[in-house]
TrEMBL record:
Its EC number is 1.3.1.34. It comes from Aliikangiella maris. One of its GO terms (molecular function) is 2,4-dienoyl-CoA reductase (NADPH) activity. Keywords: Flavoprotein, FMN, Iron, Iron-sulfur, Metal-binding, Oxidoreductase. Pfam families: Oxidored_FMN, Pyr_redox_2. Its cofactor is FMN; [4Fe-4S] cluster. In the N-terminal section; belongs to the NADH:flavin oxidoreductase/NADH oxidase family. The keyword Ubl conjugation does not apply. Gene3D superfamilies: Aldolase class I, FAD/NAD(P)-binding domain, NAD(P)-binding Rossmann-like Domain. Residues 14-337 form the NADH:flavin oxidoreductase/NADH oxidase N-terminal domain. This is NADPH-dependent 2,4-dienoyl-CoA reductase.
Length: 681
């Protein structure tokens, strides 16, 4: 391993090149593995090739693909991706050729799901069902273990034939290899279970066999679970022992794995502090001589530089930041970090989509994984366009349309852009939404959008200006339910609380348990500094043992700071509260409110609001919740009056975002809708 120093620019450590075997890696950024759903889509490898090529053109040092199974049992689902046969090599060539033409390096991740497989052919070291899948795995026989090791090797050889510069062996996140390592999932009594030396044989033999089969120059990254975050996980001594054994077996680099998928600790959600787990990579560094990669919630070049300068690792792995902005590294190298479209770790369009069996994309970058379908080419004819409303939909449309050469004027009644994004960023744990507003402010400057703040417009004004096109993105207003006493002085809506900062008493009833209701409850149950901005407090609340004295790095009990208020969260529906929250983040919100002892009531009938409080009928019993305030979070109504008036006068107008359809505060749909309209107009 040879390191060269490049002291130019704002980020000298990040842009310091390094040589791994005979491979010259131009910087210390790795685009981490992320499944996209394109792997299984018809024609998906053509789309994947362009997706990865754009990231290589954007300057990332090394790309790691989404997980590819080494055999059928290891597939994520019955139709999941696999690389085992010669006829499968050709489609992977499309990816490697595209990346290499762009001057990049790429490794393929080999992922065997083990008991996490979402199909009835799942296998594992022991027949123990995972809590996150409905299928109980079959325990591998001795012959099955040997065959699985051969399948890993065969997969690596096929990857090499397909032109990959290396492979990443997925040994973390609770997948098959990780299941062999810990006694929680490995109850075997033979040579592959029992003692830790036996349990770690499986990954060591895989790495050793891959090195023998692929030769010296092939990059082998091993994804080591450094922090399981589950009971009966590995202890620190076992992590160090395995790391040393993997190095001796022939690995080129060791990547950091944090948490099993079944762990009840957030690891990559927006509420997790930035660079929250680099301490564990740093802890391993004195024991390992090959390069170490750290990961999780590193989303800016400043944070990446800080981690590298502090010596926590040799590389930083960022997956979703390159989903959000393929040119992340180019912009950083040019000294323009303010132009980076920052990943806000919302999970809404990436991980949630994967778990919903949809194609991955990105809330802040709707072009992600649509690189062959969504284009913003120069318009054949430049038009004058008015956009009313500088919320997510209006900002998206305005900047993409201006990028295409249209003359865009953006009207906003408030004194700043962002719309509902300015509501979201008030919630503890959602501070990253400030980055999206910062990005759009920069985009407005770069694309030449004429921004008119503090300007309310109506249909007559817009008609008088003779615009070629008018885009209505006026958003939503809170919906006020028909409850007797809803105009009582005790009643506030979510804007009163989050935007106008009205005083709220010590006992509160929140009506509506959708995303906004949960956000308001989160806001009301925290005081002072957000846990996201205080990593030590965050760790204690989520049971992360930073001293690593406990197995799995998991404390016995959380340390919860008491809520400053008593909060009731209610909904009319009989279903579980938060049922429709994000697939991968809903449990975090529910657990956070449970920790704050929020009383959750489903199936509530709202009878009236008076001086006493909120009167409800619940489970056929009438009761009064004696509260200081009742906060309405019962959905929204679209603000579309201007659009209706324009249409009545036969004026060409388009409506997007919440103004078009009010469904919670859906920035993902709003930004995509704005982008798609801008690509066509």
């Amino acid at each position: 391993m040879r390191v060269e120093k490049d002291n130019g620019g704002l980020y000298p450590a990040l842009f310091s090149p390094i040589k791994i075997h005979d491979h010259y890696i131009k910087n210390r950024a790795i685009m981490g593995s992320m499944h996209t759903g394109l792997e299984e889509l018809k024609g998906g490898f053509d789309k994947l090739a362009r997706y990865y090529q754009e990231r290589a053109e954007g300057g990332v040092g090394l790309i790691v693909t989404g997980g590819i199974a080494p055999n059928f049992a290891g597939r994520i689902s019955p139709m999941g991706s696999q690389l085992s046969f010669f006829w499968q090599v050709k489609k992977h060539r499309k990816i490697t050729d595209a990346v290499h033409q762009a001057g990049g390096k790429i490794a393929m991740q080999i992922l065997h799901t083990g008991r996490y497989a979402y199909h009835p052919f799942a296998v594992a070291p022991s027949s123990i069902k995972a809590p996150i899948t409905p299928f109980k795995p079959r325990a591998l026989s001795l012959r099955g273990i040997r065959k699985t090791i051969k399948d890993f090797v065969n997969c690596a050889k096929k990857a090499q034939q397909a032109g990959y510069d290396g492979v990443e062996v997925m040994g973390s996140e609770g997948y098959l290899i990780n299941q062999f390592i810990v006694s929680k999932t490995n109850k075997r009594k033979d040579d592959w279970g029992g003692s830790f030396e036996n349990r770690m044989r499986f990954p060591v033999e895989i790495v050793k066999a891959i090195r023998e089969a692929t030769g010296h120059n092939f990059i082998i990254i091993y994804r080591l679970s450094m922090l399981d975050l589950v009971d009966q996980g590995s202890n620190w001594e076992e992590v160090v022992s395995l790391g040393k054994a993997i190095e001796s077996a022939g690995a080129s680099m060791i990547n950091t794995g944090i948490g099993w998928h079944e762990a009840r600790v957030p690891t990559i959600a927006t509420s997790v502090p930035r660079a929250n787990f680099t301490w564990v990579t740093e802890k391993l560094k004195p024991h390992i001589s090959i390069p170490l990669v750290t990961t999780n919630r590193i989303n800016t070049p400043e944070m990446a530089e800080q981690v590298l300068q502090a010596g926590h690792s040799d590389f930083v792995s960022m997956a979703r930041p390159f989903l959000a902005d393929p040119d992340f590294m180019q912009k950083a190298k040019a000294g323009k970090p303010e132009s980076i479209n920052t990943c806000i770790a919302c999970n809404q369009a990436c991980l949630d989509h994967i778990f919903e069996h949809k194609r991955v994309t990105c809330l802040v970058n709707p072009r992600a994984c649509y690189e062959t379908e969504l284009f913003f080419n120069k318009a054949q004819k430049a038009k004058t366009i008015a956009v009313v409303g500088a919320g997510p939909a209006g900002l998206s449309f305005a900047t993409y349309a201006a990028q295409r050469g249209h003359q865009v004027t953006l009207y906003e009644a408030a004194d700043k852009i962002g719309g509902q994004l300015n509501i979201a960023n008030q919630i503890p744990g959602k501070e990253e939404f400030y980055e999206t507003i910062r990005y759009y402010n920069q985009r407005i400057k770069e694309t030449g959008v004429k921004l008119k703040l503090n300007q309310t417009v109506d249909s007559e004004f817009l008609i008088q200006q003779s615009f070629d096109e008018i885009i209505i993105a006026t958003g939503v207003e809170p919906r006020i339910p028909d409850i007797p006493g809803v105009t009582h002085s005790k009643v506030l809506n979510y804007l009163d609380v989050l935007k106008y900062k009205k005083d709220v008493g010590q006992t509160v009833a929140v009506i509506g348990a959708g995303g906004i209701g949960f956000d308001v409850a989160e806001y009301l149950t925290h005081t002072g500094e957000s846990l996201t901005l205080n990593p030590d407090k965050w760790a204690k609340e989520w049971r992360v043992d930073k001293d690593y004295t406990q197995r799995g790095g998991l404390l016995k009990k959380p340390e919860i700071e008491a809520s400053p208020r008593k909060v009731y969260l209610l909904q009319r529906k009989e279903t579980k509260l938060g049922k429709d929250l994000g697939k991968t983040t809903g449990w975090i919100h529910r657990m956070s409110l449970k920790n704050k002892q929020v009383t959750q009531i489903a199936g509530a009938e709202y009878l009236k609001i008076d001086d006493q409080g909120l009167h409800i009928n619940h489970e056929n019993q009438t009761q009064c919740l004696v509260v200081d305030h009742v906060i309405i979070c019962a959905g929204q109504n679209s603000l579309k009056q201007i659009y209706i008036e324009l249409k009545e006068k036969n004026i060409s107008a388009h409506i997007i975002g919440g103004a078009d359809f009010a469904a919670e505060l859906d920035a993902k749909r709003a930004i995509r809708q704005g982008a798609e309209l801008a690509s066509m107009i």
